[in-house]
Amino acid sequence: MNPLKVLTISSVSIWLGAMAFFSIFVAPAAFTVLDRESAGRLVTTVFPRYYLFGAVLGVVGLVGVGGQFFGSGGRQAPWGTLALLLLMLGLTLYAMLVLEPQIQSTRVALRSAGIVPGSGAPEAQAFAGLHRISVILNGVTLLAGLALICLEAVRSRG
Prior knowledge:
By secondary structure, this protein is mainly alpha-helical. The protein has one domain. It contains four helices and no strands. Helix 1 runs antiparallel to helix 2 and helix 1 runs antiparallel to helix 4. The longest helix is centred in the middle third of the chain and has 36 residues, at 36-71. The protein is elongated. The chain starts with a helix and ends with a helix. The relative contact order is 0.14. The mean pLDDT is 93.
């Protein structure tokens, strides 16, 4: 198998593994074991690193795709893989640079006003809406990564 293809598949696989581990194990465990405030602080501390890790792995994957394209003189163009990787990277960068700062400022406003997340207050509803968008973006990123791995598996067989 082409080493650049291995680079792309490996970077996306590591990215997906980290996403799944955090979403399935770390975040739920934090909210089970810790009080809501402490769990929120933990997750708040992890998320910037989580998104940065994904962005770095996305760039590594792009290097692999670009290397495949340019290394073949433009004959091997994994356009589907490129599109899925750009989608993943774009959603991750949006979450990291736009959504996460909005969530943080909303969380600070909640804390300073003494409002509990999950209450019916407008600020709590705004936080819940931003959290929902974050969950959706992460879900789409995860599904795009799975689709990319499946696409590459099919391409390898063909």
